[in-house]
Amino acid sequence: MADVNRGNRPLSPHLQVYRPQLTSITSILTRITGNALIVAALMIVWWLLAASTGPEYFAFANGFVTSWFGDLVMFLSLWALWYHTLAGIRHLIWDNAKMLEIDRAEMLGWMVVIGSGVLTVFSVVVLW
């Protein structure tokens, strides 16, 4: 029979024992940014549909998209787009069995995080 009394050992991996790694956090963040980009795309589609509907409805939609909240969503969407793109490139590198060593995989993770921030700021400065 199976040992029913396992003692006070936590099941592995457990949050009390397991320390999240940069590669796992960046992988989870890739999925989150991908889903967040869907929300931003829907907001842009709504804005375009409002433009084709009429001037009153477009004024309402345009007011929302150009408000501080809309600007924040668009800025975060720009960051998410750069992050998701760089993370995709990282996964393409891994798919070719390159840079799979722990130190190089962590370096790629930091390159994705820092690169997405730098490219976002650069894009905002150029597009402003």
Q: Characterize the main sheet.
A: none
Low-confidence spans: none
In total, how many domains does the architecture comprise? 1
How large a portion of the residues is in β-strands, by DSSP E?
A: under 5%
Q: Number of helical segments?
A: 4
Query: Termini separation (Å)?
Result: 69 Å
CATH hierarchy: architecture? Up-down Bundle
Q: State the shape.
A: elongated
Annotation, overall tally of beta strands: 0
Helix-strand makeup class: mainly alpha
Round the mean pLDDT to the nearest integer and report it: 90
CATH class: Mainly Alpha
Q: Identify the quaternary structure here.
A: single chain
What does this structure look like?
With 128 residues, the protein is an all-alpha fold. The chain has 4 helices and no strands. It has one domain (22-127): 3 helical TM bundles of succinate and fumarate reductases, CATH 1.20.1300.10. Helix content is 76%, strand content 0%. The protein is elongated and about 70 Å long.
Features:
128 residues; mainly alpha; 3 helical TM bundles of succinate and fumarate reductases
Element layout with pairings:
Elements: H1 22-53, H2 55-65, H3 68-95, H4 102-127
Helix pairs in contact: 1-2, 1-3, 3-4
Question: In short, what is this structure?
Answer:
This protein is mainly α and 128 residues long. The protein has helices at residues 22-53, 55-65, 68-95, 102-127.
